[in-house]
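Bug report

Summary: structure tokens for Sodium/glucose cotransporter 1 differ between web form and batch submission.
Environment: batch mode, default settings.
Steps: 1) Submit the sequence below via batch. 2) Compare with the web form result.

Sequence submitted:
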Amino acid sequence: MTEEFSNHGQSSYFGFETFKSRSMNNTTVALNNPADISVIVIYFVVVLAVGIWAMVRTNRSTVGGFFLAGRSMVWWPIGASLFASNIGSGHFVGIAGTAAAGGIAIGGFEWNALIAVIILGWLFVPIYIKAGVVTMPEYLKKRFGGHRIRIYLSVLSLFLYVFTKISADMFSGAIFINQALGLNIYLAVIMLLLITALYTVTGGLAAVIYTDTLQTIIMIVGSFILMGFAFDKVGGYEQFQARYMTAVPSITGNISAKCYEPRADAFHIFRDAITGDLPWPGLVFGLTIQAMWYWCTDQVIVQRCLSAKNLSHVKAGCILCGYLKILPMFLMVFPGMISRILYADEVACVDPDECMKYCGASVGCTNIAYPKMVVYLMPNGLRGLMLSVMLASLMSSLTSVFNSSSTLFTMDIYTKIRSTASERELMIAGRKKQTNISDFVCKKKILTQQQCAPLTDNVLNMLVKDMRPLSMVEGAGFQQMLKSFNPGYTIPSRMHFARLLDKKYNATVDQVKSRISAIDSKVALTADIWTSVATGRYMGITCHYIGIDWQMESICLSTMPLEERHTAQNIAGWLQEILDKFEILPDKISAIVHDQHRGCCSTTTVGPLSDAQVTHCSLFSPLLLNTRSLPKQLELHDALLSILKEVNLLGQKQHQMGTPEHELIQDVSARWNSTYHMINRLLE
């Protein structure tokens, strides 16, 4: 299907013509209708709103808050940001173009990332977190020592970001802007950079991650819509397979058929190791090594994982990113191949003159495969949505690079230039001395309820671990100390901590029940009644079991005050309450160790364990056994000494008489002839 272009300019940017207007069946398709413009405007407004919201709700006053989002991110924004940081406009242009030229094998690059991103969450990130680093050069410095390696790798990373990531994304974004808007490329690029830098510089990593999440949703929804239109236009998947193999340009000149006919293995991911354009050993082994570098050591990727609340959120985010990386095969590869079917003369052109006419490049026009479908296939409104998708992919990758580059420069380079730099100075350097727009939005930094929650939880953990009274939180000195740590934090009331303590206790009970239910073997209980210094009586119940590493483990189930008479019936009832609370069945108990209290001893005949096969062991019984056995042990000791003396005397007599010095033979009941040998030795 050949499309006629009614008017195209002659100036070229980045090697591609700037199309002012296009017509298809005498219908203008330039993005100048109210529906498309409205969608694009709404997109920019929503992105800026999300960026400002992220700036207001996150702590950006510290280096950790600005560069690592306060280490407070949960799994789903992390997974979405990992995906958006990786998927740039270069993917929509480059992957779709490569698929149009060579088939689905390029999708293997995306699926290979599934392995690498899982290795990132399970192997690499735990090491980075344990090392307490912010940047990858910082980790290598800690791992191998020396200061030059840190500076060298930081400078190298900055150069690579500028000359590979930023330039590639801007180039591919320029192709789409050429095809869709007909705007001056340099003006459009400058506007995008300004908008991108606005919320990146002012909002820090938190703003980048939240806007990346929005960009991910826009990219996936818009790309799915385009994929649906594309398959509908081509006639379904079977027609897609058949028509792709015959999609050749009408003008070929004297060029060999190998240059314009689709490859015979176009629908094979794993291709011949010798003749394939993407041989399977390189795809499986070579690409995996490259993916390990990108997904496990690149600052852009790792920095998002380091912003997580804990390792569980890191792993869940990596899993989400892995699932999202399945989509490019369907959202980019297949549409790129369909574009070759629909626009074979332009996308699959091989004649240099024809290619110059369509895209301004003599070597081929496969890079316009995806933009061309957006411009010509989508109706008004949805065309604007797809432009938003391309802008989202471009801006998400740019924000990621900007933030990570700022982190590398500030933490690895500027700290060497200014070793005594204050945190405020590092923040200014990280923002590249630009004005912080949040000063106009939020005059006073007061922590939100979500930001206060981790601090309140830490205070509660301190009260529990150190067994401090809840009244401690009302102390003026304690509150002043917390204010010095974080002026924006207001400690809750004592009653609030009491409610949190109940929730924490219930959560701990559930954890203990899960641990006990997971034990395959039986457990033993220790019941002890004791009197405190204040003459209050208590009963403690402790559970003991052998863990998976064959080590004894103990859990204190309860320490309850005995406000009633501790008779056998009452003790049995209290014990039943504890067993019910922790869901411990009588047949799971092997033994109960208790003291000589009369009530405890009587629990063998009353209560929940009266009919169970449970061994009751009094705590004083072993002591009594040892005491009663001491006289017997002394008698045995004296007998052994007497026998030894007689044996020595017998040896002396044998020596004096000149007879062989044979040892005595003892009668052993387990040996039938031992008595006979004993008598013979005695007669001898």
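Above is the batch result. After comparison, the two runs are identical; trailing whitespace caused the diff. The longest strand covers residues 537-546. DSSP finds 26 helices and nine strands in the chain.
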